[in-house]
Every structure is written in C-alpha cells, then in structure tokens.
Design a protein that fits this description.
The complex is a heterodimer.
Chain A lengths: L14 H12 L4 H7 L3 H30 L8 H37 L7 H23 L24 H29 L12 H33 L12 H35 L6 H14 L15 H13 L1 H17 L6 H24 L1 H7 L3 H31 L5 H27 L16 H31 L30 E2 L5 H4 L6 E2 L9 E5 L6 E6 L6 H16 L4 H18 L9
Antiparallel strand pairs in A: 1-2, 3-4
Helix pairs in contact in A: 3-4, 3-5, 3-16, 4-5, 4-6, 4-8, 5-6, 5-18, 6-7, 7-8, 7-9, 8-11, 8-14, 9-11, 12-14, 12-15, 14-15, 15-16, 18-19
Chain B lengths: L1 H13 L16 H33 L18 H36 L5 E8 L2 E6 L8 E4 L1 E5 L3 E8 L4 E3 L8 E3 L5 E6 L4 E6 L12 E7 L1 H12 L8 H12 L2 H4 L23 E2 L4 E2 L2 H9 L1 H4 L12 H13 L2
Parallel strand pairs in B: 1-5, 4-10
Antiparallel strand pairs in B: 1-2, 2-3, 5-8, 6-7, 9-10, 11-12
Helix pairs in contact in B: 2-3, 5-9, 7-9
The chains are: A mainly alpha, B alpha+beta.
C-alpha cells in the first residue's frame, strides 16, 4: 500500500464526505452528451427495462390485432399479407425484443447490487449492448411501419424465408434484427458472467450466491453457447438472400432442414434463457414472503445447472414431424422428458419453502402462486409434446400455442411481474399500490387462463397455427371469439400494471431501503441506490446477510479509493479479496460505436459493400473507445 | 367486390354443412389415430393427477396451521421441519422420475405400434405440396393406369396406405387429424407416412406448416371408400374427360382451350395439358374449390374463376378476362367433368 497516500481512500473520510466523493466519482454526467455517455449499470438497466417494456406493448398490440382478426370465421379485417407480418412481428418482438432483453436487463440492474459491488464488469460494453439492442428493435418496427415487417414467422423457415419465396427486404430486416439483438445479448451475457465470477463481495462464496444471481450466471453461459448458432443461421440466410449463396437451397445442394437444426439448437435453449432468470426471481421473492430462507438451496442450484445443460439436448423435439429416424427421435423424447425433473425439483423446493415458512400475502407472492399453478400446466403439456406420437398430432396447432404461452407467460411473465412489484421500490424508492396490485393479479390470472386454455381444445379440434383465418364449417368460431375477448381482458391487466407503475412513481408510499425485510444484499443500500451502490463494500458471512446480521451485513471492506472509480475484484470460488481495479469512466464512444455498427448492419441489408465501408467507422469508434488514457495505474 | 363477397357468404351458408367429418384428433378413424388418442388420454390422466396433487400440496402449504413457537426470526423459522421436508421432496423427485420413465416407455411403445402399421403391401400414393394446393398421384407400373388428381386423397378403407411426400417449393405438412399425425413435405427430401383408415368416410385436414400467404386455405380431404368401391372410383377417375354435352358447355370447352386456362391445367382427353395447376379432368367430382377454400358449387366455382384474388388473395392463379358468356360456358363445361 505504498501508493496509498496518492489517492483518497474511504478510510480517510467520514460518511458524509465519503458520500460526496463517491457521488462525484460515480455519478453520470448531465446534459445530452452525458445522457448518451452513461455507463452506470442502474441507468443502463433502467433504460433496458423500459425499452423492453415498450416492445412488450408493441408485441401485445400485435397479439390483440391477431385476436381481432381471428375472432370471426373468414374475417377480412387484416388479410393474409398483414396478418402474416403481424404474427411474425408478435413472435419476434416477444422473444427477441422483450423476453430475452428484459431478463438480461433485470440482471444488469440487480446483479451488481446483489453481489455487493459498485459496478457491472465492462460497463461500456454493457452500454454498447443497450444501444445495439435499441437500434435493432427500432429498425425492426420502423421497417414494419413501412410495410417491410417480418413475414415468415419468428422462426423464418427456409425455403419460405429464402430469396425465391420471400422476395423484397422484409426477411432481410428480420435476419439483421437477429444479428443486432444477438450481439447485444452476448455482450450482456459476458458482463453479467464476469460480474458474478469476479466482483462478488468478500465472503460471498459460491454457496452464498443468491439464487437469482446463480440463475443469471447460468443463463449467461447458455446465451454464450446458444446465440452463436442463430447468428450463424441468420448470417447464412442473409448471404443466401443477398449474395446468392445456396446454404439452404436444396436445388443447389443446400439443405432446408439445416436451418431448422441451427435455429432450434438456439431456439430451445432460448426458452431456458427466458425461463431460468424467472425461476431465479421466484427463488429470490418466495423466501422473502415465506419469511424464511429457501428450502433446498443446493438442489435448486444443481437443478438450474441441469436445466442449462439439458436445454441443449432437446432441440429436435421441434422437428418430430420432419421425418427424422425413429431412434434419434426417441433420444430426444427421453431428454425432453428428463428436463421435467430439474423443473420439478425447483417446484417442490418452493412449495416446501412455503410449507415451512409463514406466508405473507403481498402482490409479488400472489403472482408467484399464480406462476406455480399455471406453469405446472404448461410443463405437463410439454411432457405431452415430448412424446413423438402425441406431438405428431399437436405440433403446429393451437395446442402448442396454448402450451408455450402457459410456459412463457405463466413461467416467465408472471414471475417477472412479481419481480416488478418486488423490486420497484428498490429502483424508484416508492412502493407500488397493493390494492391495484391485487386487482392486477386477479384480472391477469383469470384472463390468462380464459384466453389460453381453450386453445388446447382448438388444437385438438384441428386448428393449425399461423392461419390468418378459418372456415365457418370448422366449428372453431365460438371458442375463438371467447379467446379473443379474454385476450383483450388480459391486455387490460397489463394496462393496470402500467398504470400502477406510472402512478406509484409519483404517489407511491416511500419505501425505505428494505420494505419487505428481505435478506439479500440489494436491500442493504438505499432505495433508489446511490450511483456507487454501497458506500462501503459489504463483507458476507451468510447466504442472507441481512437476516443473519439483523439488517446489516457482517462487515465492511476498507481501503477503496473514493476519488476515482475503483472496484474490488475477488476470486471466483471463495470470493477472497484479490485486487483493486479502476472501473471505466463515462464515455460517448460505446454509443458512437453502436451507431457505426448499426449503420453497417442496416447498410448490409441493401449491399454487401456496406460491410466494407462500415468497417472504417466501426474501427474509428472502437479506437476511440479503447484509446489509452495514460492514467496512473494504482499499485 | 362487396356484393361478390356477399354472394359468396350466401352460397356458403346454403351448402349443407357437415358433409365431411370435422378434423378432430381425438375422434380416431384408424389405428394410427387410435394409438395416439389412447396415448394422449393416458398422458392427460397422469397430468391432471399430477397438477391436482401439486395444487393440493401448494394449498396445504399455504393454509396449514403454523405451530406456535416455530421461531420468530427468518433464519430460525421451520428449522425443525426440514428433515421431514427433505425426505418428502426427495421421494417426490424420485416419484416424478418414475412417472416420467413410465411415460417415456409408453411413448416408445406407441411409437413402435405406429411403426408396425407401416410396411405390409401398402398402396402407394404420392403427395406433392404446392403453394397452396396438393398434387395427388396414384402411381402404377402401367403408366396408363397412373392417375393424377388434386386436393383429395382417396384410399380404400381398411387397407394400408403409404404416402410418399414431396414438395416443389416450400415446406408443407400433411395432416388429417382423425386419421394420423403430421408429416412434413420438405423440398429436397422424400418423406413417408404409413396409415390405415378403418371407417369409410370423408375426413378434413389442412396444411399444418406455415407456407406463406394462403397457408390458411390449403385444405385437403381424405376420402376412405369402402374397399369394394375403391376400384370403381379409380376406374372412373382414370377415364378421360367426357365430351361436353349441350351448346353452352361445348362453347365453354372452346373458351377454356382458347383462353389461358389450358396453359396451367390439364384436362385429359383435350389438348389442355398445363402442369402448373391442378388436373381438372374430374374437377366436378371433387368436394371443394381452390384447395377447399370453398365448397364445390357453381357459385363458388364462378367466384373463384372470375376473381381468384378476391377468394384467395395471393394465390398463384391469375385473373382471366372472360365475358359473362364465356364464364357461364366454362362453368357449364367444368360442371360436367365428373
């Protein structure tokens, strides 16, 4: 510590002065340039969440438009051209622009707080990721507004999505949007994984990591292994379309099924990329309202890992109708059944937690209970879909539409809404209305089941997916009308949620640091947290440090610089203090780099030369970003 | 445009509904669908029980009376019950595993049952998917006995059938819910589906893989004839088209052959030999127009020919400029092609 006298450290300052210095070091700058330069994970996380919610609204409106079209037989409200775009935009938006980003966004906001550090790892990469995601999403929806929306579904099967059967630029926009969002997702996955492995507060050994953090860590690895498959697939598609390669053209030796293998090798893990963080949310929220630690922590961690691994061994169950050999299909039946075991372990552990605890019925817990009731239905219909003979009947019908909405809305969106109610006070400093929350839950739970349960029956009665209309004689009209009305009611439950969030931002009760008396670290700091997260980095001796320490962590780290951005790096296993490291300052370069990258991606829809011309601005912005500052290295 | 639509709706509502069986997976009409339906009900029964038990367990967990003095602080609460809870959870996980293994085996055995239906001396029918109609071919070693038809698959009830599935454009999927599960038609690949239909009847189905604009109107019916009637049907279909009778129909044939119709459609026994659209040699014997977008009536046929894009927007059949007389003639002619 020979250089100690050169810098101002937290040991030199009293609480008030420490706050002053840390704020000056960590605060995001004001003004327009400051706004685009921010790298604070809380600022970026908030923007990420709000943007993902904005896309949720757009995707939801697309769903309502579809339901209006399907409310009557032979309806002509949308017509095939618009309907095909609308359902493609709905699926694409919900999966790529809402579900994956929002789960990562919550991680961006919460993980550094939960592991007790000042900042996310690689904060500039994180900011870059947000702008790339934003640009990709905006590009997609602006294209839709200009009648160039995706039209071959969120899965874009070739040859339908190929140059011959989808001429024009619609599918090119879709394929490039994939590139945008995958770059963003990979960047976040890296920042989150490194934050969890290297930034944990001293004492937070592997067995003390909060379960939500575990789930996001495992999800990050799933992202890193799954996303490249779809990036390769979408790049091959755009090459087929743009420079006439023939990867997917059977007439020239390409293979139509290759696309499906690549897409689902990503597409099935994708479900777990969305679902695992949601289970992490449940494991974080449920103990707080059971008033005891979660039951079976090691079992849940192992179940998360099991889910993460098995997620890569299931993709073929999306392809049972393609005529694959029976033996191979049987393997994928077995693995698809097996993934029910880790999910089952988690459900049993949560019920045991409630059993042993003393439940407090607040809105977050209500949504968690709704999640268990709905998700188990979706899991069981998933077991049905794993059986090859049954899948041959229900595949590509409304039964499957019902199944995956039970899994994705029940399994992920309900926990996410619970998470909004639960962490809203941490983010804004105010509570959401409990009364509106109860109405919100009741409406969402009833309307969800009314909207999606009848779809099981419609599927068994032969209604295929992705049809823009259906004949009157098929006898599907009554149930479709009921589904459409219920889906509007389900949409209203989100309006109620939105109203509650907006109203509470202004009029909500002041929350205080720990309104739920929860046990994890994010509740140890003020609500909303200061730019530097923790005035003094906590030291952990327990999985629920605030419960073991009666409201405060066991100890504090001393010796970190207050006059510059400095963070503590710890070892991946034991979280022993390892070294102090400067953390990146605000910078406009990540934003400029995202513009350059975005322009390159966008240009390459129209000409392959854009990749060449775009390389220059990308290189310039990256050089600006990484330009050595010559700041004296401490130690 | 509006009035035509109105007319369409009128013709639709006047045709007797229910001439074909509604497409229902759980009303099986053959051993394939039987096996799947049985398996489905087994899985459903297990699922209902499992879900019921989970919800019951959750309910008890929430409502059970809490023992006094169970610890007031979160870290002390429920400690005494943890050993019992561990045992219960472990046994539940074991039970889940056993149930899943049982279901997997059930699924395997059903799959074997389905595989066993295949093979034996099946009648081969070739089905080729097109955007947005089905070409059906009944191959025979004697080319003169090879039949090409569209949008209807005819089989003898009680006899095994092997469908050979191909596509020339995008991926489609064959699905007649009452008869069998789906099998995709994939360009560059030949798929097979073996099945038997037990009960004679007409079964409705449609394309199950999204195939573009008119995926919704790519209907198909499967007609199972009583075994003894099948050959008679086959013979009647093999015959070339009958010569038109009556002035109007004769004029209609002339109009058909001299307009662009014959560039895409074949009518055996006439010079019309186009291969782009469905074979029309016996079009009047079919049950639907435009891949079952509309039922086979004169009105529906008129609407379809007069303006295909109004009936099925995006369909590859272009609008042909015809005078009212030409249209009536063609209708009269086509109506005779039984």
């Amino acid at each position: 510590m020979s250089a100690a006298e050169e810098g101002l450290r937290d040991t030199d300052l009293d609480d008030g002065r420490l706050h002053e210095f840390l704020t000056r070091s960590w605060e995001s700058r004001k003004g327009l340039i400051g706004w685009f330069s921010a790298v604070d994970h809380k600022v970026i996380g908030r923007r990420y969440i709000v943007t993902a919610l904005f896309f949720l609204v757009l995707g939801g409106l697309a769903a309502v438009a579809m339901r209006l079209q399907l409310s009557r037989a032979e309806n002509t409200l949308l017509g095939p051209d618009l309907y095909n775009q609308v359902f493609s935009m709905h699926g694409t938006t919900m999966l790529f622009l809402f579900a994956v980003p929002v789960m990562e966004a919550v991680a961006v906001y919460l993980v550094p707080l939960m592991v007790g550090t000042r900042s996310i790892a690689f904060p500039r990469l994180n900011a870059f990721s947000y702008y790339v995601f934003l640009l990709g999403g905006l590009m997609m929806w602006i294209a839709f507004a200009l009648n160039t929306g995706a039209e071959a579904g969120w899965f874009s099967y070739v040859p339908l999505a190929g140059p011959e059967f989808s001429p024009g630029k619609r599918t090119d926009f879709w394929a490039q949007m994939i590139t945008f969002t995958e770059v963003a997702a990979l960047a976040v996955a890296v920042t989150v994984a490194v934050t969890v492995l290297k930034h944990r507060a001293p004492g937070m050994t592997l067995s003390r990591i909060p379960l939500f953090v575990w789930s996001e860590l495992i999800t990050s690895f799933v992202v890193m292994f799954a996303m490249p498959a779809v990036m390769i697939a979408s790049t091959m598609l755009i090459l087929d379309r743009l420079v006439a390669t023939h990867f997917f053209n059977p007439a020239e030796g390409g293979d139509a099924l290759l696309w499906q293998h690549l897409f689902w090798f990503f597409g099935h893990p994708e479900v777990y990329i969305i679902f695992l963080p949601a289970t992490g949310m449940v494991s974080a929220i449920l103990p707080a309202f059971s008033r005891r630690p979660v039951f079976g922590y090691p079992a849940i961690v192992l179940a998360l890992m099991g889910n993460g691994f098995l997620a890569f061994g299931l993709w073929v169950h999306h392809m049972f109708a393609t005529g694959l050999p029976q033996l191979g299909s049987s393997f994928f039946t077995a693995s698809s059944m097996m993934i029910a075991i880790p999910s089952g372990i988690q459900i049993f552990c949560w019920i045991a937690t409630l059993w042993l605890g003393r439940p407090v019925y607040k809105t977050p817990l209500l949504f968690i209970l709704g999640f268990i009731v709905i998700f188990v239905i979706g899991g069981l219909t998933g077991v049905m879909a794993a059986a090859v003979p049954i899948d041959a009947q229900i595949h590509d019908t409304y039964f499957i539409v019902a199944h995956f909405h039970y899994v994705l809305i029940g399994g992920s969106v309900f926990p996410l809404i619970a998470a909004f109610y639960y962490w809203y006070p941490k983010v804004t400093g105010r509570m959401m209305s409990e009364r509106l929350g109860r109405w919100n839950f009741a409406l969402a739970f009833i309307a969800f089941n009314a909207a999606f349960f009848p779809m099981h029956i419609l599927g068994l009665q032969g209604m295929p997916r992705r049809v823009y209309t259906y004949p009157l004689e098929a006898g599907w009209e009554g149930m479709n009308l009921f589904v459409s009305l219920s889906s509007v009611a389900f949409g209203l439950s989100f309006a109620l949620l939105g109203w509650n969030m907006i109203r509470s931002y202004r009029y909500g009760e002041i929350a205080g640091p720990n309104p739920w008396n929860a046990g994890t670290l994010e509740w140890a700091t003020s609500s909303p947290p200061p730019p530097y997260n923790f005035a003094r980095i906590p030291v952990i001796d327990h999985r629920e440090p605030l419960w073991s320490g009666h409201g405060a962590p066991a100890g504090e780290v001393t010796g970190l610089r207050a006059d510059m951005r400095e963070i503590l790096i710890t070892t991946p296993g034991e979280a022993a203090p390892d070294l102090r490291e400067p953390s990146a300052a605000d910078s406009i370069w990540p934003f400029l780099a995202s513009l350059a990258v975005g322009a390159t991606f966008l240009g390459s829809i129209f000409t392959p030369w854009a990749v060449v011309w775009g390389a220059a601005p990308v290189a310039i912005t990256l050089i600006g970003w990484f330009w050595p500052k010559g700041a004296p290295e401490d130690e | 445009m509006r009035t035509r639509r109105l007319l369409l709706v009128l013709t639709l509502s006047l045709t007797p509904a229910g001439c074909a069986n509604l497409p229902k997976s759980l009303e099986p009409a053959g051993p394939n669908a039987d096996l799947v339906a049985q398996l489905f009900w087994w899985f459903t029964a297990v699922s209902v029980v499992v879900w019921g038990l989970v919800v019951l367990g959750l309910g008890i967990a929430l409502l059970r009376p809490r023992p006094a003095g169970d610890g007031e602080l979160p870290l002390e609460r429920g400690r005494s019950g943890e050993i019992v809870a561990t045992r219960i959870v472990v046994s539940l996980v074991a039970l889940t595993t056993v149930v899943l293994v049982a279901l997997t085996l059930l699924s395997f055995f059903s799959g074997r049952g389905l595989a066993r239906i295949s093979g034996q001396q099946a009648r081969v029918i070739e089905l080729t998917g097109h955007q947005w109609w089905w070409e059906v071919r009944y191959p025979d070693h004697d080319p003169a006995r090879t039949l090409t038809d569209a949008n209807e698959v005819h089989v003898p009830a009680g006899q095994p059938v092997r469908l050979v599935l191909r596509s020339t454009d995008v991926i489609h999927s064959f699905w007649i819910p009452n008869v069998s599960g789906k099998r995709d038609l994939i360009p560059g690949q030949v798929n097979r589906l073996d099945f038997t239909v037990r009960k004679p009847g007409v079964y409705r189905g449609q394309c199950a893989e999204f195939c573009g604009f008119q995926h919704a109107h790519m209907g198909l019916v499967l007609v199972a004839h009583p075994a003894e009637d099948f050959d008679a049907w086959y013979k009647s279909q093999l015959a070339p088209a009958s010569q038109p009778s009556g002035k109007e129909a004769q004029a209609g044939q002339g109009a058909f052959l001299s307009s662009s119709c014959s560039l895409c459609h074949t009518i055996r026994g006439t010079p019309a030999g186009g291969k782009v659209g469905p074979d029309l040699t016996h079009v009047a014997s079919r049950r639907g127009v435009a891949a079952h977008t509309l039922p086979m009536t004169r009105g529906a046929l008129a609407a379809w020919i007069a303006d295909p894009q109004a009936v099925k927007p995006g369909a590859h059949m272009p609008r042909t400029e015809l005078t009212p007389d030409q249209l009536n003639g063609i209708l009269a002619y086509l109506e005779q092609l039984e």
